[in-house]
Amino acid sequence: MTDHTHMDDLLDGGRLLPLVEDFYTIQGEGYHAGKPAYFIRLGGCDVGCRWCDARFTWNARLYPPTPVTEIVERAAALPAQAIVITGGEPTLYPLEPLTAALKAQGLEIFIETSGTHPLTGAIDWVCLSPKRQQPPRTELLTRADELKVIIETESDLAWAEENAARVSTHCRLYLQPEWSRRKEMVPVLVEYAKADPRWNISLQIHKFMHIP
After folding, report:
1. Which of 6, 96, 99, 151 has the least C-beta neighbours within 10 A?
2. Can you name the residues that pair with 146 across neighbouring β-strands?
């Protein structure tokens, strides 16, 4: 039995998920920045960005499989109208049971993904944040509602353009400075977006607000 099959068995087809944390906050990045949203953070990532601010999520085995019913019950008990499924890399898991239960509560569902695995479940908004070391699948590029590229150095702008050339015409384009490099990169990105206004700037405003 492969390790992946073993994990699928443990998760009962997505009725259990390796939950890192779930909490109600304000979305801090991209198109929906400033919007109250309930975050569901799943463990496990096979991309491994060196500047990741959620490295604690990478090893899914650290997080016990949690019933989807429990997660949805907590989300539905709050005034939240929107859900953000994030990670880690949430597309590692079958998301149909989670999204069906959230939809039954009338909730809108956003996902944040690097696009490395097929998308499952009923998702209203796909935020694709592609990573060079493991490029996104073509179907995720065409499905993306929002392309959010993290810019650590000026050379990352070429990667941003490479992905922007492959998304659909309705997809919103965002450049986001890597947090530890924001002082150096913000002036560069401001000038870049002014010269090519297809691009918008995303900042991690939750970090300025000191909230999760």
Report:
1. 6
2. 127, 172
Q: How far is CA 133 from CA 49, 92, 114, 160, 195, in A?
A: 8, 17, 11, 13, 28
Task: Tell me the residue type at 104.
Answer: A
Task: Give dist(CA 119, CA 90) in Å, integer.
Answer: 9
φ, ψ of residue 172 to 5 degrees: the values are -80, 145
pLDDT bin (cut points 50, 70, 90) of residue 8 is low
The identity of residue 160, as a single letter, is A
CA 153 to chain CA mean position, Å: 21
Q: Report which residue type is found at 138.
A: T
pLDDT digits (tens, 9 = 90+) for 105-158: 999 999 999 999 999 999 999 999 999 989 999 999 999 999 999 999 999 999
Asked if pLDDT for residue 187 goes beyond 70, the answer is: yes
Q: pTM (2 decimals)?
A: 0.93
Torsion of CA 68, 54, 125, 169, to 10 degrees: -150
Q: Is residue 185 within 8 Å of residue 151, measured between CB atoms? A: yes
| Amino acid letter, 135 | P
